[in-house]
Write a sequence for this structure.
C-alpha cells in the first residue's frame, strides 16, 4: 500500500510547466477563502445573507460540532497556507517533501467530505440536535459550493500533482470546466454575477480566443480587433431587430455574423499583408477607429447612428425565453466556446497551425518552403474575426442594444490585455486571462464602488464612499500590459515554445556553434 | 578527390548511425519523393502570372505617385472649400489649419525622434501631450500665473516664459522617466514587446488623468491670456493667439533643428539613430542620448499642449489618444524618423483635417485621417519624402 | 541532357549597385552544379532571384522552358525548386519534425475545416506526413532529435534539418546555399555523400559553396561569379585552370587551394 502511494506520488523527473499547477493551487485556496468570507462579505451590508460551513458548525452546541470545526479549520488552513509555504521554498530553490503532497491531498479530501456532510445535514436534514438553528432566510449556497469546489480542486491538484505537471492543459480543463458549467447554479442567488459571467467573461473569452489566432498563432499584432466584434454585432443586430424589420433566429445569426466578420477580416487584413509588425498594428488600429466612426455616422443608414440599434430579439427555445435569465445565454456561450476551443486546438496542431507558426517565426523561410503567406495571413485574420463575429452576435442578443461606444479602442486593448496577461499563443492562458481580467475590471471594480459606499456609510467615512472605482479601469489595463511585458512577457500560462524561449539557456550554445564556423 | 571516390551508395547512413527501424527494413527509404520529380502542371499559375504583375504595377504606380496624390487631394479640398464658401471661409479655414498643424507638428516631432532612434512607436506620446497640458493647467491655477498673465503685457510675457519652461521641463522629465521604467529593459526585445508596453503606458497615463481630472472636459484658463485681433485680411480676422501659436511652433522647431545639427548631443542622437552599435563603439553614451531624445520630444509635446490650451481652452483625459494618432499620421506622412518631414507633415495633416473635414462634414474628419494613415502605411510607409522602395528594386 | 533550369541574362540591380549582371547558364536534369565566387559576387542574390525572393531587374529564368518571372516564392517552390539558406533559417521554436512537416504543407490536401474538425482525411494525411517527416529525419541522421526544437540542435544538424525540410517539399531542383559552412571534415564527407545520393535518386542539385574540396569533389560543372558577372563555366578541371578564376580569387592561397583540391 505504501509502495503504491509512493509510486503515485512519485516526484516528476522533469517539471515542464508549473504554471497550471500554481494557478490551480491558488484558485483552490482562493475559493476556500472566499467560501469562508463570502457570507461576511455579503452579510453585514445587504440581503441574501449566507452561511459558510464554519458558521454552521460553530452554531453546534459543543462536543462533536467543536471537533468538526477544528478539523475543517485545520484542513482549510493547510489548503490556504501550503501554496505560500511551497512558493517560499521554491523561491529558495528547495522542494517540498513529497510526503506533504499526500498530507495536503488527504486534508483536502477530508475538508471536502466534511463540507459535504455539513451541507447535507444543514440543508436537507436540518438536524437540530447536532447544529443549532440557523437564522431564517439564510440560504446562500454559493459559499458552500465555493468551499466544496476549492477543496475538490485542491484534492485533485495535490493528489494528481504529477499529472498536473505533465499534462497541464488537460488538467486545467479538468479543473476549470466544471466550474464554468456549474457557475450559474452555484451563483443562482447572485444574478448580477451570472450576468457578468455571460456578458463579460464569456464574451471576452471568445474575443480573446479569436484575437489569439491572429496575435498568438500568426504573430500579427492586431490593435483594432474591436472592429470585427462591431461588424459581427451590428450585422446580427440589424438582422434581428425592428430597425430593418428583419428577424432572424440567433442560431442562424451566429453563423451569418461569423461569416460576415470573417469576410471583413480578410478584406481589412489585405492592406496589411506587406507591412512590418508595428506598422501592421497601427493600420489595424486605424481600422478599429474607422469602423465605429462609420457606425456613429450612420453610414448608408444601416447602423442607427450614435444611439445604435436597440430592441434586439431575445431567442426563445421551446418554453425557455433567454431574456429572462442570462444563464441560458451563458450556457450557450460556454458550449460555443468549447466548440471554438476544440476547433482552434485542432487547427493549431494541423496543417494550418504549422503554417501560422512558421509564418510567425520566419516569413521568408515560410514563403521559400511553399507557404502562401498571403492566404495564410488572411486565413488568420478571417478565422480570428469569425470568432469575434460569433461573440458579436451573442453580445447584441444579451444586452439587446449595440452602439458605437461598445466597440471603442478600449475594447481592443482589453482583449489584448487578456491574451498578454494569460499567455500569448496559449489557449488555457487566454481562458485564465479572460477570467482574471474581466473579474477585476467588470466585476470587482463596479462592486468595489458599491461595497466602499456601504463601508463609508456604515463607518461614516464619506471619503471612501465617493470613489468611482471604474475610473481605475484604464490604469489596470495599462499596469497589466506594462508589468506583464516587463516581467513575464510570456504571460501567466506561457505556451510551450515561449516557455523554452524564456527559460532555456540554449541560445549561448547555438551561438557558440555559429562562432565555431568563423 | 573526384566524384567517383565519394561513393554513391544509396543507403549509406549519415551521422551517428541510428538503429535501423522496422519501417526502414520494410521498404528501401528514399530521400527524394518520386512524386516530386515529375514536371508540374502550371494550371493555376496563370492567375498568379496575370494578377501578380497587374497588382505590382498598380501598387507601384500608387506608391510612386503617392505624394502627388496627397498634394492634389489637399489642393482639391482647398479649392472645394473656396468654391463652397468663398475666400472668407477658405481664409478662416486656412488659419485654423495652420494653427492645428503647428500643434500636430510639435507632437509629430516627438514621435519621429523616438522612432528614429529606437524604432519604437511611442504610443504614450499623445498622452504625454495631454499630461503636460494638465501640468500647465495646474501650475497656472495654483501659482497665480493666471493672475500674472492678466495683469499687464509684461506680466503676460513672464507668465508665458514660466509656464512654458516649467511645463516643458516637467514633461521632459516624465518622458525620460517613462523611457527608463518601461522601455529601456525591452530595448533588445522583439519589436512588438515595447509596442505593447507603450500602449500600456498610454493607458496608464490616461487612467491617472481620468482618476484625477474626471471624465469631462476640464476648462483651462489660458484661453483668456492672449486677446484681440492682430489684423484682418479681407474678411479673415487673424487673432494674436494665432500669430503666437504659429510663431512659437516655428521658433521651437528651428531651435530643435539647430540643436540636432549643431550640438554634440544632437550629433550623437543622429548617429545613434543610424547605427546604435557603431555609436556605442564610438563612445557615445547611448542611454543618455536616448533619454535626451525622450526629453526633447516630450518637452515639445508640452509646448504643443500649452499652445492647445491657449487656443482651445480645454483639455480632456483621453484627448491624447486621437491627437496622438493624428500626429503620428503626420510623422508617417513626413517619413518617420525625419524631423523636418514631421514638421511639414504636421501642417499637411492640419490642412487635411480642416479642409477635408469642412468638405465631408466634421464627423468624418477623424475617419479621414485614419484612412490616410492606413493608405500611407499601405502604399508608402517611407512617407512623402522618403526613398521610394518600389522604384529601387 | 535537357535543360531543367535556364538563367537567361539574369540581372538584378539594387539602386546603383549591380548585384547580378546579365548572368546566363543552364542546369541539366540530374546534374550537380556549383556556383563559386568571392564574397559579394552575387551568388546568394542569384539564388534569391531563382526562388522569387527578389524580382528580376532584367532577364528571365525558365524551368522546363516556362518562365518563372513574376511568380511569388511559394509558387516557384511548388514548381519544384527548393532551397536552403546561407544563414540557417529554420523555424526555431518548432520541433524538428514539425519543421519538416512544414515542407509538406503545400502538397497536403487537408483544408482548414478538415484541420478544425479533425476529419478522418486530415488525420490520415497528418499521420502519413508525419511518418514521411520522421523517415526523412531518420535518413538524415536526425531521428533522435525529432521532438527537439530546431534551435536546440547543434549547428551541423541544423543544416541537415534545413535540407530535410527542403526535401519534404518534393523538389526537382535543390538549391543549397553554402551547405558545408561550419561543418567539420567528417560532416563534409557525409554532406558530399548525401548530395551524390540525392542525385542518384533523380534530384538536380545547385549549390553555392566556398569549400573547394566539396565543390571540386562533387560538381559536374562549376559556374564562377565575380562582381555579379559570370567569368567562367565548365568542369572542375576547366575552372581550376581558368586564369580569370584564379585572378578573381586574387589571394594566391585560394588558387593554391583550388589546384590542390
Amino acid at each position: 500500500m505504501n509502495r503504491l502511494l509512493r509510486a503515485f506520488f512519485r516526484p516528476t523527473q522533469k517539471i515542464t510547466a508549473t504554471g497550471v499547477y500554481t494557478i490551480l493551487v491558488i484558485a483552490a485556496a482562493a475559493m476556500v477563502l472566499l467560501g469562508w468570507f463570502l457570507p461576511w462579505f455579503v452579510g453585514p451590508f445587504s440581503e441574501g445573507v449566507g452561511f459558510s460551513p464554519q458558521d454552521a458548525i460553530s452554531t453546534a452546541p459543543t462536543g462533536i460540532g467543536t471537533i468538526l470545526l477544528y478539523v475543517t479549520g485545520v484542513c482549510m488552513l493547510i489548503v490556504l497556507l501550503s501554496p505560500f509555504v511551497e512558493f517560499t521554498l521554491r523561491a529558495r530553490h528547495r522542494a517540498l517533501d513529497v510526503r506533504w503532497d499526500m498530507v495536503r491531498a488527504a486534508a483536502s479530501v477530508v475538508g471536502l467530505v466534511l463540507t459535504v456532510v455539513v451541507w447535507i445535514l444543514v440543508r436537507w436534514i436540518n438536524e437540530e440536535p447536532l447544529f443549532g438553528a440557523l437564522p431564517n432566510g439564510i440560504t446562500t449556497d454559493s459559499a458552500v459550493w465555493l468551499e466544496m469546489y476549492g477543496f475538490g480542486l485542491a484534492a485533485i491538484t495535490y493528489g494528481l500533482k504529477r499529472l498536473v505537471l505533465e499534462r497541464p492543459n488537460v488538467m486545467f480543463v479538468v479543473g476549470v470546466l466544471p466550474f464554468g458549467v456549474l457557475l450559474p447554479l452555484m451563483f443562482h442567488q447572485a444574478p448580477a454575477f451570472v450576468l457578468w459571467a455571460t456578458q463579460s467573461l464569456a464574451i471576452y473569452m471568445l474575443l480573446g480566443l479569436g484575437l489569439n489566432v491572429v496575435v498568438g498563432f500568426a504573430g500579427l499584432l492586431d490593435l483594432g480587433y474591436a472592429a470585427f466584434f462591431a461588424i459581427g454585432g451590428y450585422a446580427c443586430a440589424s438582422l434581428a431587430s425592428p430597425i430593418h424589420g428583419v428577424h432572424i433566429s440567433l442560431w442562424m445569426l451566429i453563423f451569418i455574423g461569423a461569416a460576415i466578420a470573417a469576410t471583413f477580416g480578410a478584406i481589412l487584413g489585405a492592406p496589411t499583408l506587406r507591412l512590418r509588425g508595428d506598422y501592421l498594428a497601427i493600420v489595424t488600429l486605424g481600422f478599429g477607429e474607422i469602423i465605429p466612426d462609420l457606425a456613429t455616422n450612420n453610414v448608408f443608414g444601416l447602423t442607427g447612428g450614435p444611439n445604435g440599434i436597440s430592441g434586439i430579439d431575445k431567442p426563445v427555445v421551446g418554453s425557455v425565453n433567454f431574456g429572462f435569465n442570462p444563464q441560458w445565454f451563458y450556457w450557450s456561450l460556454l458550449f460555443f466556446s468549447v466548440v471554438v476551443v476544440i476547433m482552434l486546438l485542432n487547427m493549431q496542431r494541423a496543417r494550418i497551425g504549422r503554417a501560422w507558426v512558421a509564418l510567425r517565426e520566419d516569413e521568408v523561410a515560410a514563403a521559400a518552403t511553399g507557404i502562401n503567406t498571403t492566404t495564410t495571413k488572411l486565413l488568420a485574420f478571417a478565422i480570428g474575426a469569425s470568432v469575434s463575429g460569433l461573440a458579436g452576435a451573442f453580445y447584441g442578443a444579451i444586452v439587446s442594444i449595440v452602439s458605437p461606444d461598445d466597440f471603442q479602442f478600449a475594447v481592443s486593448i482589453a482583449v489584448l490585455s487578456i491574451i498578454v496577461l494569460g499567455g500569448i499563443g496559449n489557449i488555457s492562458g487566454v481562458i485564465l486571462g479572460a477570467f482574471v481580467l474581466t473579474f477585476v475590471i467588470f466585476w470587482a471594480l463596479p462592486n468595489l464602488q458599491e461595497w466602499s459606499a456601504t463601508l463609508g456609510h456604515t463607518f461614516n467615512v464619506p471619503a471612501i464612499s465617493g470613489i468611482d472605482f471604474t475610473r481605475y479601469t484604464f490604469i489596470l489595463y495599462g499596469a497589466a500590459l506594462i508589468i506583464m511585458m516587463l516581467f513575464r512577457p510570456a504571460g501567466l500560462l506561457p505556451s510551450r515554445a515561449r516557455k523554452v524561449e524564456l527559460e532555456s539557456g540554449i541560445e549561448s550554445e547555438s551561438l557558440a556553434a555559429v562562432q565555431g564556423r568563423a | 578527390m573526384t566524384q567517383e571516390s565519394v561513393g554513391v551508395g544509396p543507403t549509406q547512413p549519415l551521422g551517428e548511425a541510428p538503429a535501423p527501424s522496422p519501417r526502414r527494413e520494410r521498404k528501401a527509404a528514399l530521400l527524394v519523393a518520386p512524386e516530386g520529380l515529375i514536371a508540374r502542371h502550371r494550371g493555376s499559375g496563370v492567375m498568379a502570372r496575370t494578377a501578380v504583375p497587374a497588382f505590382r504595377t498598380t501598387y507601384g504606380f500608387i506608391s510612386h505617385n503617392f505624394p502627388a496624390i496627397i498634394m492634389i487631394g489637399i489642393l482639391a479640398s482647398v479649392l472645394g472649400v473656396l468654391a463652397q464658401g468663398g475666400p472668407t471661409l477658405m481664409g478662416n479655414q486656412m488659419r485654423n489649419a495652420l494653427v492645428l498643424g503647428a500643434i500636430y507638428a510639435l507632437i509629430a516631432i516627438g514621435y519621429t525622434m523616438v522612432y528614429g532612434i529606437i524604432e519604437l512607436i511611442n504610443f504614450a506620446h499623445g498622452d504625454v501631450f495631454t499630461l503636460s497640458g494638465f501640468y500647465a493647467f495646474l501650475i497656472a491655477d495654483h501659482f497665480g500665473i493666471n493672475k500674472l498673465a492678466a495683469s499687464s503685457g509684461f506680466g503676460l510675457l513672464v507668465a508665458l516664459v514660466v509656464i512654458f519652461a516649467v511645463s516643458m521641463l516637467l514633461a521632459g522629465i516624465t518622458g525620460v522617466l517613462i523611457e527608463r521604467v518601461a522601455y529601456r529593459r525591452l530595448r533588445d526585445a522583439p519589436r512588438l514587446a515595447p509596442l505593447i508596453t507603450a500602449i500600456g503606458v498610454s493607458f496608464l497615463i490616461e487612467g491617472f488623468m481620468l482618476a484625477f481630472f474626471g471624465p469631462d472636459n476640464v476648462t483651462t484658463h489660458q484661453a483668456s491670456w492672449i486677446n484681440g485681433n492682430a489684423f484682418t485680411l479681407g474678411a479673415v480676422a487673424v487673432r494674436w493667439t494665432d500669430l503666437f501659436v504659429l510663431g512659437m511652433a516655428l521658433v521651437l522647431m528651428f531651435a530643435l533643428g539647430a540643436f540636432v545639427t549643431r550640438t554634440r548631443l544632437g550629433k550623437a542622437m543622429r548617429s545613434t539613430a543610424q547605427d546604435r552599435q557603431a555609436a556605442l563603439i564610438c563612445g557615445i553614451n547611448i542611454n543618455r542620448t536616448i533619454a535626451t531624445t525622450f526629453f526633447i520630444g516630450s518637452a515639445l509635446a508640452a509646448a504643443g499642449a500649452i499652445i492647445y490650451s491657449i487656443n482651445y481652452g480645454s483639455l480632456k483625459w483621453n484627448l491624447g489618444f486621437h491627437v496622438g494618432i493624428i500626429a503620428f499620421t503626420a510623422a508617417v506622412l513626413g517619413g518617420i524618423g525625419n524631423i523636418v518631414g514631421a514638421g511639414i507633415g504636421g501642417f499637411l495633416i492640419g490642412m487635411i483635417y480642416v479642409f477635408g473635414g469642412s468638405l465631408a462634414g466634421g464627423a468624418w474628419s477623424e475617419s479621414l485621417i485614419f484612412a490616410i494613415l492606413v493608405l500611407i502605411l499601405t502604399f508608402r510607409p517611407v512617407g512623402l519624402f522618403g526613398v521610394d522602395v518600389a522604384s529601387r528594386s | 541532357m535537357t535543360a531543367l533550369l535556364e538563367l537567361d541574362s539574369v540581372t538584378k540591380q539594387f539602386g546603383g549597385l549591380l548585384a547580378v549582371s546579365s548572368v546566363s547558364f543552364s542546369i541539366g536534369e540530374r546534374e550537380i552544379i556549383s556556383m563559386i565566387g568571392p564574397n559579394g559576387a552575387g551568388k546568394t542574390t542569384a539564388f534569391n532571384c531563382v526562388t522569387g525572393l527578389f524580382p528580376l531587374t532584367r532577364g528571365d529564368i525558365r524551368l522546363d522552358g516556362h518562365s518563372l518571372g513574376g511568380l511569388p516564392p511559394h509558387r516557384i517552390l511548388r514548381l519544384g525548386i527548393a532551397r536552403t539558406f546561407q544563414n540557417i533559417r529554420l523555424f526555431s521554436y518548432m520541433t524538428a519534425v514539425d519543421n519538416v512537416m512544414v515542407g509538406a504543407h503545400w502538397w497536403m490536401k487537408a483544408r482548414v475545416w478538415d484541420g478544425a474538425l479533425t476529419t478522418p482525411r486530415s488525420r490520415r494525411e497528418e499521420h502519413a506526413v508525419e511518418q514521411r517527416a520522421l523517415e526523412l529525419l531518420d535518413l538524415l541522421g536526425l531521428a533522435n532529435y525529432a521532438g527537439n526544437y530546431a534551435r536546440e540542435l547543434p549547428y551541423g544538424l541544423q543544416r541537415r534539418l534545413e535540407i530535410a525540410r527542403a526535401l519534404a517539399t518534393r523538389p526537382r531542383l535543390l538549391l543549397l546555399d553554402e551547405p558545408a559552412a561550419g561543418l567539420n571534415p567528417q560532416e563534409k564527407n557525409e554532406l558530399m555523400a548525401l548530395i551524390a545520393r540525392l542525385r542518384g535518386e533523380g534530384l538536380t542539385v545547385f549549390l553555392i559553396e566556398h569549400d573547394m574540396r566539396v565543390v571540386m569533389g562533387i560538381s559536374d560543372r562549376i559556374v564562377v561569379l565575380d562582381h555579379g558577372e559570370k567569368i567562367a563555366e565548365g568542369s572542375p578541371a576547366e575552372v581550376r585552370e581558368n586564369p580569370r578564376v584564379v585572378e578573381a580569387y586574387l589571394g594566391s592561397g585560394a588558387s593554391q587551394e583550388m589546384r590542390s583540391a
